[in-house]
Amino acid sequence: MKKIITVLILGSLLSCAGQYKVRNNKIKKENMEYFNVDKYKDWEIDNSYSPNETTMFLKKANDRVGIFFRESTIQIETTNIQSPYGSIKVYYAKNKSLKSILCEFYTINIEIYKMYDVDGKLIKEINYEAPYKFTLKDAINKIKKEYEIDFENLTQKCVLERFESVELDKKPLYTAYLRNMDNPGIMDYIVIDGTTGETLFKTDMALNGEGDLPPYYKYIESLKKAEEEKTAYYKTYKGKDYTKEEWEVFEEEWYKNYQEKKKSKGFWDDLFNKP
After folding, report:
1. Does residue 114 sit in the same domain as residue 141?
2. Lowest-pLDDT range of 122-131, 223-232, 263-272
3. Section 94-118 average pLDDT
4. Do residues 118 and 151 both lie within one domain?
5. Given 98, 127, 156, which residue is the final one in a domain?
6. What pTM did the predictor assign?
7. For residues 13 and 38, what is the distance between their CA atoms, to the nearest angstrom?
8. Per its UniProt entry, which superkingdom is the organism in (predicted)?
9. CA distance 123 to 110
């Protein structure tokens, strides 16, 4: 009985990088992807999880599959115990055709999300890479080079996120929690610009997190403080009040004018003092 149940709920495990031939936004019938109950019959039940009548977890070598049977859909979540990359595929229960595909890096949505109708017509697409000129791979390489931490290695026990900041008018950011090499009770935290790749902010946090402001909000607070300092009174000169930024501009202009006058004066002095 166990073997029969296993066969009935086994699904196809296909690569997240699979390509589809699309014409007029519709997949040719012979290229449509379907949930296939006959594939992967040699996969084992993964006893790390508790199955039930509508859920099954399977494994083969390093690959893992979670299959979820719902009233109108069948969802397959694929992962690998040695890789942070995975995918979620949803199929229509009605005809077993592919409904949607989502690729992930840890919990980050990546690549292009696609949704199809029951006849294989592409009805929705979201390019999760579009906001990030500094790509996910760029961010991984930057952190690997500067901190010797490889996010493609699951043993690192670090966290990488990316998002469009609500507080900063949808500015694309990467944030990373990195293990501190000198103090195991501390995590380093960095914010990276999703457009330029510049490191915008650094701080740290205790792992117990007692009474500490979350590091992302420390970053937001630092920006608010910097903005307040720009508009705050800094100095008065000849009856005029200056902010710090205005004073720096004034000093720069004053020095520039001084150098030009000094240079001009020296020219005439040299001219009239010639022997």
Report:
1. no
2. 263-272
3. 96
4. no
5. 127
6. 0.74
7. 11
8. Bacteria
9. 19
Residues 13 and 98 in one domain: yes
123 in the same domain as 75: yes
70: tokens are 């719902």
pLDDT digits (tens, 9 = 90+) for 154-213: 998 899 999 999 999 999 999 999 998 888 889 999 999 999 999 999 999 888 766 578
Q: How many domains does the chain have?
A: 3
pLDDT of residue 100: 97
Q: Which of 174, 181, 138, 142 is nearest to 159 (CA)?
A: 174
Task: Label residue 89 by pLDDT band (50, 70, 90).
Answer: very high
Instruction: Provide the domain limits for residue 253.
Output: 235-272
Overall average pLDDT of the 111-138 stretch: 97
Residues 119, 167, single domain; the answer is no
Residues 168 and 207 in one domain: yes
Q: Residue by residue, what is the 3-state secondary structure of the chain?
A: CHHHHHHHHCCCCCCCCCCCCEECCEECHHHCCECCCCCCCCCEECCCCCCECCEEEEEECCEEEEEEECCCEEEEEEEECCEEEEEEEEEECCCCEEEEEEEEECCEEEEEEEEECCCCEEEEEEECCCCCCCCHHHHHHHHHHHHCCCCCCHHHCCEEEEEEECCCCCEEEEEEEEECCCCCCEEEEEEEECCCCCEEEEEEEECCCCCCCCHHHHHHHHHHHHHHHHHCEEEEECCEEEEHHHHHHHHHHHHHHHHHHHHHHHHHHHHHCCC
52 with 149, same domain?
no
